[in-house]
Design a protein that fits this description.
This protein is mainly α.
């Protein structure tokens, strides 16, 4: 019973802090756009003409020696 005198006020303080954090984040616009980040990962903004021309030629010289090159 004596533990309840400590645990109930501590739980109310923790609840108050959680509500305060939620209201502060809600007021700052944290939860305004819930769909934008989900769609932004689907929309690829990469330019098809990469700055690395070796990536489009299939040239592996930029990635170091292959495993079969080391055995020769």
């Amino acid at each position: 019973m004596e533990a309840l005198f400590l645990l109930i006020p501590l739980s109310l303080i923790a609840l108050g802090v959680a509500i305060w954090i939620f209201l502060r984040m809600n007021g700052s616009g944290q939860f305004d756009d819930t769909e934008g980040p989900a769609y932004s990962i689907l929309l690829d903004d990469d330019d098809p003409a990469s700055k690395d021309p070796a990536a489009h030629r299939g040239d592996d010289r930029t990635h170091g020696p292959r495993s079969d090159d080391r055995t020769r």
